[in-house]
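Example 3.
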Amino acid sequence: MTRIDRASLEQTFHEQARIGATPRGGLTRLALSDEDKVIRDRMVAWLEAAGCAVRVDRMGNIFGRRPPAPGGEALPPVVMGSHVDSVPTGGRFDGVLGVVCALAAIRALNAAKARTRHPVELAIFTNEEGARFQPAMLGSAVMAGKVPLEDAYSQRDRHGVRLVDELERIGYLGPEPCAARPMRAYLELHIEQGPSLEDAGLPVGVVEGIVGIAWSRVTFHGAQDHAGPTPMRTRHDALVAAADVVKAVRHIPLEIGNDMVGTVGWLDVHPNIVNAIPGKVVLTTDLRAPSEADLDRAVADLEVAARDAAEAEGVRIEYESLMRVPLTRFAAEVVDAVEGAARRLGVGHRRMLSGAGHDAQHMATLCPTGMVFVPSIAGKSHCEEEATAFDDIEHGANVLLHAALTLAGEA
Amino acid sequence: MTRIDRASLEQTFHEQARIGATPRGGLTRLALSDEDKVIRDRMVAWLEAAGCAVRVDRMGNIFGRRPPAPGGEALPPVVMGSHVDSVPTGGRFDGVLGVVCALAAIRALNAAKARTRHPVELAIFTNEEGARFQPAMLGSAVMAGKVPLEDAYSQRDRHGVRLVDELERIGYLGPEPCAARPMRAYLELHIEQGPSLEDAGLPVGVVEGIVGIAWSRVTFHGAQDHAGPTPMRTRHDALVAAADVVKAVRHIPLEIGNDMVGTVGWLDVHPNIVNAIPGKVVLTTDLRAPSEADLDRAVADLEVAARDAAEAEGVRIEYESLMRVPLTRFAAEVVDAVEGAARRLGVGHRRMLSGAGHDAQHMATLCPTGMVFVPSIAGKSHCEEEATAFDDIEHGANVLLHAALTLAGEA
């Protein structure tokens, strides 16, 4: 039975982890940064060395295709992919592990001289994290027709730099259309980013879908004033209203239950000095649920809580929905292929939902899609401590390889 | 009776207000910025044109001395002063109005060919706001021996730029010692920055002292993690703990009453992205009270609330006291001189405490000190809407002039 070369996989992993490495073992490799250019160039070189034909599309998404058995060139490919960008001071595994394992799978096919009916492709999507340009999963969103290319191009980072200019600067403004095309299936290996596989003592999660996600931005406009001579009774403090929203985002998911989660991850205070009453606060809310009904309820409860907070403090509120991704159910055929591979390999596994959004959720609108999860130590991710044991990674990569083989068909 | 020239005062005011002007009628003139250099150069030119000898000390504090009647050269001066730096998007009045009115007073003495027994000086103190370098009131603090010069020099702004390097860059690293010297009295005119004079319909406040002020910095170290797959029960969210502190800083002053106030003005979230649970939050607290006992109680209550918040969320806390300025009582002689001037001029006034810290509080440790307040429209300050009516300014400047004359003695 064809297997991943563990030593080569580990070596490739460690090599990528040096690009944008932080002193404490993490990674800062923001989308379209200099570090992103270096990892992209490296991946392209590795793909070409593995006999793949590499194309880059207008969003900078990279595709490397392993040729199928003769006669299969026109058949739709089985695509394995993920992303190589990270959040600031993030971990070495999130995203890039799926790319490294897909590369290891292609190398394993080469080593075994395996001939597949359908081509097998590796995909690297641009700006998955949404840490530099909004929204997250932008490369796959444009490919899926969810975001117009021109809208993506005009996104700006905090410093006002446009995405399209950065694509061009790092040499990844490709010529290929960024659009739907026939694909046999899409498979993505990713770290779980939660504790459930580790808690269950299982190396592989067979992902059946992705929770529904709702992002909002709340802006409170209060009255900037001096922190000393302004009596408490006359204050309109934007941060006091914002604190109510932070507490509501903690409270609402606990009240609803059913594995719902909620986070205020971003909060900016203006003017942000010790002795001025905050005149303006901008914050984001991130709500996720395995049930659309629960998500609807949470979104509605949160808006009420935010408007109540604004009214109580006498501040003006702007409430904007940034993103709503409905609950995604993956194709039974692909979920079964992943589960079958795990079973045949004798790898402990269980079916589960993903709590995080992934490029797979946009790809699921284009072709039969599934994911393979591997455990996150202590459930940690988006931090420097993020880690997965190589024994688990090896299991996951072998499951990815054999699910891809099942879907591509041995020729 | 000698009077301020209102037209000249208005003209000088409007001229200074153009330096660092914001589009919406405010001012951004951070300490030791390019704009600060321009206003300083202008003030030095105005002082020299008014016949004053100008000296700059090692902290960049500027002193312009009007000569006394012959024989008085060795007598300690009556110093009138304030500051010319602003907070970001602050107002056109805070600080600089006291400097403009002091200049108007010196010009009025010149116009009247008044001879004073003691010299009369104008002082401009460096970095009063504390918006760029901490702590606030740094120039007067070094002069009063509260902060060693070397500590002040090594303060860095958010971009890591050292104060001493900026002093040198803008040409205000002067040769004079920054230290206590004999002074007959210190007088500072300032906007009230609160609503009480406007509410009472009075143009002048005779300031008897300054409330006690306590600044702290609270840092919460939580667990940065992914906002999706991390269950609510396993979270250690630094921002949730911080929200409790924001609410406590609102609640504690209301509970204590007695005109106590409390503000969280600065709050930074790390890594500050939509889909990461905040791993670290740094915030400042600003508590003020007209009673030392109330301030002690509030500081203690706040530390308990912050530690409780950390414990409830399972995050680590660092709690640092940044500054504690005890309640300042001004010298009866100077308060009486201000009150007497208002009475002789027929200007409506009342005695009051200042809710804001001022350079006067450090000067009060060096010599008999007092302040003149003028009303803030709608109590607003540290914002672009900050304003004071010129009728009130004229009254205040005349009270400043005559209080200075009383203390300097007519020769």
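Chain B has a mean pLDDT of 96. The two ends of chain B are 15 Å apart (CA to CA).
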